[in-house]
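Let's study today's protein:

:::
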Amino acid sequence: MPRPTIPTDTARAARRLWPALALCVGFAGPGAAFEHHTAHGGPVKGLATSPDGRWLVSTSFDYTAVLWSLADFSEHATLRGHDAAVNAAAFSPDGRWLATAGDDRAIRIWRTAALRDTPGTAQPLVLDGHTAKVVDLAFSADGRWLASSSWDHRVGLWSVPAFAPVAFLTGHNGPVNAARFSRDGRTLYSAGGDGQVRQWDVASAAYLRSPVDVGWGINVLAVDETSDLLAYGTSSGLMRSTSLRGAGRTHDYARDGAPVLAVAWDAANRRVAFGNAEGRVVIADPENGDTTRDFRAASGPVWGLALLPEPRALVIAGLDDHITRIPLDDFETPVVGDRERRFHPLGELDNGARQFARKCSVCHSLDADGKRRAGPTLHRVFGRRAGTVAGYAYSDALIGADIVWNEDTIDALFTAGPDVVTPGSKMPLQRIPDSTNRRDLIDFLKSAAGAAGSVE
């Protein structure tokens, strides 16, 4: 017996599953001054501010980074080139360079002058050497070094401005999640999944000691030798600031709970901020241990934090396509409930639409214009040859693939997986083992996406 097709109005409604929010939208109720700013087509992984306070960079699952002008919080440039999620960004202290890194194991170095003046033509220098995803970047304050933290258990040390590899520091027993330089650039501190903060001599690339060994993975790290500050967050939920030299007091702002995923240090106002996997944000004064803010800022994880000194504000990033600016001087605790997202709808949907929302919509759109997504649009996908959407930067493997998307090839894609059907492509590993779920997804796509050459 043939399966019923999805009514046209249902299919059209599915194309509107959580479209991008307007550029500047406040929360309803308390905290109405909170602003959402949208420029990405997927969850936002990280944030970085320029030394002069004029620019903010957000990095995303959609394979891009976005340069924002903080004067009016407008999108200035979209940086393309990574072949996977972009996890981290960092500006050099003179503002000349911007580094980005991601799941594609590569680091890209951009000239900020080109991004500012001719954003559409900027081409990055690509640094290779890591064998697993890169999750954190940091320049030394003297501008001589760049450190990259990778899940290949190593810290990459690169000279600036040549951006030549100097050394790969080994010793962590697990992924390296963050690294920060001392102010004079002579010492590097790295934090890893082995629960250690390790101290290195930069000139000799030699391990010196482990000032922290807590037994739980350390996810994030902030260091300021001038302030004798070492702040870190762990996978067990510990938010802590302590004395870098071991002579001062230790303050714990949270001990147990969701993993801590973000930290930011504002030296000018002497405050540290933490964010965790359940959307909790804690802002504290590490001198006396006082907590000045403790609230739920998001529905879902906080992956990125930036403290803006003037005007005093907090920017957060996470599962949403947008970033959120929160004023801190005129602060009201937000009302944050569980939020529907296009890839996690809360309302009633048929099984095919729900499979699409959960399995496909983070990377793919059903609209003709799917440029902000990590993958090409699925608009009119049936009967379309793989690798042929105009304007999308396909991998060579998919451009050369002899595949036409239809019921059989889509079913095979989710049965065997992209690593078998489209080996070498950028599509992440994704399988749907249940045949009913695959069939429902295909039926949904036939109705909602349409066929190549069809007229709406």
Notes: The longest strand covers residues 206-213. The two ends are 28 Å apart (CA to CA).
